[in-house]
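Record CE1759 family FMN reductase, 198 aa.
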Amino acid sequence: MTDHRTLAVVSAGLSEPSSTRLLADRLAGAAAAALPGETGIVTVELRDHAHDLASNLVTGFAPAALRGAVEAVTGADGLIAVTPIFNASYSGLFKTFFDVLDKDALEARPVLLGATGGTARHSLALDFAVRPLFAYLRARPVPTAVYAASEDWASPGLLTERIAAAGGELAAAVADRPPVTREDPYADPTPFEELLAG
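=>
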C-alpha cells in the first residue's frame, strides 16, 4: 500500500495575489517533494474565513465552512503556517484561527513556520512571536523557519535554499510519525434505550 500523507497549509495573507500565499505554496511544494509516497495538500486561505472566525469567537460555534477548514488542519500529518508580519508580530487573523482550535488539536504535530514582510528587520518575529504560539499549542515546529521580505522575491537564490531546507525538515518530521488517524465520534453510538435508562 502506498504511503499517503496530508499537509495542511494555513495562509493568512490578506491581498490577492498574496506574497504570503506564494511563500506558503512554495513551502508546501518543497515538503511534498521531499516526502516519500503520495502527498495530499489542503490549503486554507484565512481571508475566506474572516467573518466565520469572528462569529466563532463570539458564539462558540464554527459555521460549516470554517468547521471544514479546522478539520482539514487538525487532521493533517503536517502543518505549514504562514503569516504576514504586522507591528512586529503575526496578524490578528492568523492568531484568531489558532484561537478557535481545541487546545490539544496540534499536540506533537510537525509544523513549518513562515512569514512575509516588507523589510528584513521583521524576520525575528518568527522566533519571538510565532514560534512561542506553537510551543504553547504543544506542536513541534521544525528548526528552520522561513521569512521572506520584499527584496527576497527579487533575488530568490537564498530564499529558495531556505525553502528547500525547511521543506526537507518538515518532510523528515512527518515521515518519522505514524499517519494521523481520525476516529469518527459517531461510529459506535450509544443505543437510545441505554441513554433513557440512565
